[in-house]
Specification:
Layout (H helix, E strand, L loop, with lengths): L26 E6 L1 H4 L3 E5 L7 E3 L20 E8 L20 E5 L9 H5 L6 H9 L4 E4 L10 H8 L3 E4 L13 E4 L12
Parallel strand pairs: 4-5, 5-6, 6-7
Antiparallel strand pairs: 1-2, 3-7, 4-8
Length: 199
């Protein structure tokens, strides 16, 4: 029986975590302690676009659909790694993608090695339109990348993916550890948050 290896693809959340110029720093603080309150507890204040996260359609469109509206199995599935290090991220890289729907395609660029630097957020590799369209044609259910974004303003790739209900995982790390692994499963469960609307 082969032991399964678990590879963590997420950045660690700390008060010092690098955030984009569009986001505020997070706050992580202890506000209850055993001596005074008889228990320990901490408070986290953070934007939802910090660290490793999933972009859903409500991020850049008028859609009211939240990540919590998706069934849990939407965030789990067969993964496929594309090694795009030092390469143009175009349709040529998709030649080996299996003819299978609902894949979770992860794109390794090596940009995660620059996480924490200003350059990480200002000079990053992006998807070519033909690459993004081919992923849509493959009917993938999620696309992940080890950088800040798969595109730049006006974020046409984001809009294309959201039009086809494809979720985007951003700021992944350690994708290089998947190199050479032919079969793997991705489990990318977001926090189950619901903001109730009051009439």
């Amino acid at each position: 029986m082969n032991a399964q290896k678990i590879i963590d693809l997420t950045h660690v959340v700390t008060p010092q975590i690098s955030v984009s110029p569009y986001d505020e720093p997070i706050k992580l603080e202890q506000y209850r302690n055993l001596e005074t309150h008889k228990n320990n507890d901490w408070r986290l204040i953070s934007g939802m676009h910090v660290g490793t996260h999933i972009d859903g359609p409500g991020h850049l469109t008028e859609s009211k659909k939240l990540l919590s509206d998706y069934p849990v199995d939407r965030f789990v599935g067969t993964g496929f790694l594309i090694d795009a290090r030092d390469k143009k991220i175009d349709v040529i890289l998709l030649a080996q993608v299996p003819d299978q729907e609902n894949l979770i395609v992860l794109v390794l660029t090596g940009q995660d090695k620059k996480f924490g630097s200003k350059e990480y957020f200002t000079n990053y590799p992006v998807f070519e339109p033909d690459f993004a369209q081919a992923l849509v044609d493959h009917k993938v259910k999620m696309v992940g990348i080890d950088s800040f974004s798969p595109d730049t303003y006006p974020f046409s790739i984001h809009h294309l993916f959201f039009e086809h209900d494809i979720l985007i995982i951003e700021n992944l790390t350690n994708l290089d550890q998947l190199s050479g692994i032919k079969k793997f499963k991705v489990i990318a469960l977001p926090l189950k948050l619901i903001q109730h609307q009051h009439e």
